[in-house]
Design goal:
Blueprint: H1 6-10, H2 13-48, H3 52-80, H4 82-102, H5 106-134, H6 137-169, H7 173-189, H8 205-228, H9 233-255, H10 269-300, H11 304-310, H12 312-320, H13 322-331, H14 334-351, H15 361-378, H16 381-388, H17 395-425, H18 432-460
Length: 464
C-alpha cells in the first residue's frame, strides 16, 4: 500500500506546479553544466593559459564532488529538512556558477566547480525527496517520469546547446546560464511548503567522511599522477590514504546505527550484476561525452557548436530507446538484455579506434549510435531490476547504493581516461598524438565493457 504524504493533500495544485517546475528546472541545469564544461575545455585552457591536468579539474572537481556528496546530502535532507537542502544546494550551485563565469584564473574556476558539484548533489537529492512528499498516487509517478525525461533531455541536447553558447558568447556563458537558471529555482523555492527534518534521525558522519575522502583522493591520484608522477610523494601519499579510507569504510558502516551505504547488499549477486552493468555503461558513455568534444574541436577542426551537433548521434539514442528497451525486457531474459546493452556500448567505443582528423558524421555514426544505444536500452530498466532484486523493505537503501555505484563508476572513469590522455599526449590533446591516445582509450573502454559483460553473465547465472 502506497504511503500518502499529508503535504500532498494540503497544497493547492498551483503550488504543486511551482514545486514541480522548480525541481525540473534545477535538474535541467545540472547536465548542461557538465556537457557545457566539456565543450568549453579547449577555450578555457587557452583563455586561462592552463595545463591539461588543471583544466581536467574543471570537469573532475564537479563530478567528484557531485558523486561524493550525493549520498550525504540525502541523509542531510532527512535530518535538516528537504526544503533547506534543496534551496541550499540550488543557491550554492547558483553562486558557484556565477563565480565560474567570472573566474580570473584556473584555480578559482576549479574551486568553484567543486562547490557547484556539492550544490548540485544537494539540490538533486533534496528535489527528488520533495517531489515524493508533495505528490502521491499517479501524480507522483507522472512527476518522477517528467524528472527522468528532463534529465535525459538535458544530457542528450546539452552538448548542442553548450556548443552554441560557446560559439555565441564564449566559454563563460556555459557557467553563467545554468547559474541563472539555478537563481530562478531559488526564487521559486521560496514558495515551497515547510519540510522539517525527521526527529531523532542522525547522519553517519564516519561513513560519509571515509567515502568522500576515498573518492576525492582517488580522483586526485588519477588527475595529478601523469603530471607529477605516480611515484611522487604527494601522489603516492594520496593513493595510500585513499586505500586506507576505502578499507575502513566497510568497518565503519558495519558499526553504524544508520549506515550511509548498505554495503551488505553487494552480496546479492543479482543486485551486484545490475549495478555493475549500470556502472560499466556510464563508464563508457560519460568519459566520451567529456573528452570527445575536445578531440573534435582540436583535431578534427570543428567549431564548438558543430561539435555539439555531431554528439547528438551519441546522445539522442539515450532518450529515444528506453521504450524499446522496456519492450525487449518483457520478451528476453534480463541477463540477455543487460549483457547485450553493455556489449553494445563497449563495441561502439572500440569502433572509435578508427576515427581520425578526417572523420565525418557518416564514419562516426555507427560507433556513436552503438554507445548511446547501450545506455538508452537500459535507461530505467536497470534501476527497476536492481531494486526489484532485493526485499521491498530495503528498496530505498538499494536505490541509494545503486546510484552511488553508477555515479562513482562514471566519475572514476572520467578521471582515469583523462589520466591516460594526459600521459600519452604529454598534456596536450592535439595533433597526431591525440589521435593515437584516443584510439588507446577507445580500445580500453571496449575491453573494460567486455570484461564487465562477462562478470554480469557469471553473476546472473543460476547457482547449482
Amino acid at each position: 500500500m502506497q504511503t500518502v504524504s499529508p503535504t500532498a493533500h494540503a497544497l493547492t495544485n498551483a503550488r504543486k506546479r511551482v514545486v514541480l517546475i522548480s525541481v525540473l528546472l534545477s535538474t535541467l541545469a545540472f547536465p548542461l553544466t557538465i556537457t557545457g564544461a566539456s565543450l568549453a575545455l579547449p577555450d578555457i585552457r587557452s583563455g586561462l593559459d592552463a595545463s591539461l591536468a588543471s583544466t581536467q579539474w574543471v570537469v573532475n572537481a564537479y563530478n567528484a564532488c557531485f558523486a561524493a556528496f550525493l549520498v550525504l546530502s540525502g541523509a542531510l535532507a532527512d535530518v535538516l529538512g528537504k526544503r533547506r537542502v534543496f534551496l541550499g544546494g540550488a543557491g550554492l550551485f547558483c553562486a558557484a556558477g556565477a563565480l565560474s563565469a567570472l573566474a580570473p584564473g584556473i584555480l578559482v574556476l576549479d574551486a568553484s566547480r567543486a562547490l557547484a558539484g556539492i550544490g548540485a548533489a544537494a539540490a538533486l537529492t533534496g528535489g527528488s525527496s520533495i517531489l515524493s512528499e508533495v505528490f502521491d498516487g499517479p501524480a507522483r509517478a507522472r512527476a518522477f517520469g517528467a524528472l527522468g525525461t528532463v534529465l535525459g533531455a538535458g544530457t542528450a541536447f546539452g552538448p548542442t546547446v553548450a556548443g552554441l553558447l560557446v560559439d555565441l558568447a564564449g566559454w563563460r556563458a556555459v557557467f553563467a546560464v545554468p547559474a541563472a537558471v539555478a537563481g530562478a529555482v531559488v526564487l521559486l523555492g521560496l514558495f515551497f511548503p515547510p519540510s522539517p527534518g525527521v526527529p531523532g534521525r542522525r547522519v553517519d558522519w564516519a561513513g560519509a567522511g571515509l567515502f568522500t575522502t576515498a573518492l576525492l583522493l582517488l580522483i586526485t591520484v588519477l588527475v595529478e599522477g601523469p603530471e607529477r608522477g605516480f611515484g611522487s610523494p604527494p601522489v603516492l601519499g594520496a593513493a595510500v590514504a585513499a586505500a586506507v579510507a576505502a578499507a575502513l569504510l566497510p568497518l565503519a558502516e558495519r558499526r553504524a546505527a544508520a549506515p550511509l551505504l548498505d554495503l551488505p547488499l553487494l552480496a546479492n549477486r543479482r543486485f551486484l550484476a545490475f549495478a555493475l552493468a549500470a556502472g560499466a555503461i556510464m563508464a563508457v558513455l560519460v568519459p566520451l561525452l567529456v573528452y570527445l568534444p575536445t578531440y573534435l574541436i582540436a583535431v578534427v577542426g570543428l567549431e564548438p557548436g558543430r561539435a555539439g551537433a555531431w554528439l547528438l548521434m551519441l546522445t539522442v539514442p539515450t532518450v529515444a530507446l528506453p521504450a524499446v528497451g522496456t519492450a525487449l525486457a518483457k520478451r528476453l531474459p534480463a541477463g540477455v538484455t543487460v549483457t547485450g546493452a553493455v556489449l553494445l556500448s563497449g563495441g561502439g567505443a572500440a569502433l572509435l579506434a578508427g576515427m581520425g582528423p578526417d572523420s565525418t558524421p557518416l564514419t562516426l555514426l555507427a560507433p556513436f549510435a552503438l554507445v548511446g544505444a547501450g545506455a538508452g536500452l537500459t535507461n530505467g530498466i536497470l534501476d527497476g531490476l536492481a531494486i526489484g532484486s532485493v526485499a521491498p523493505d530495503r528498496a530505498g537503501t538499494a536505490a541509494g547504493l545503486f546510484n552511488t555505484v553508477r555515479i562513482t563508476s562514471e566519475t572514476v572513469a572520467i578521471a582515469a581516461v583523462g589520466a591516460v590522455l594526459a600521459a600519452l599526449t604529454g598534456g596536450a590533446l592535439s595533433g597526431s598524438g591525440a589521435t593515437g591516445a584516443m584510439h588507446t582509450v577507445a580500445l580500453a573502454l571496449g575491453a573494460a565493457a567486455a570484461v564487465a559483460a562477462v562478470c554480469v553473465t557469471v553473476l546472473l547465472r543460476p547457482r547449482r
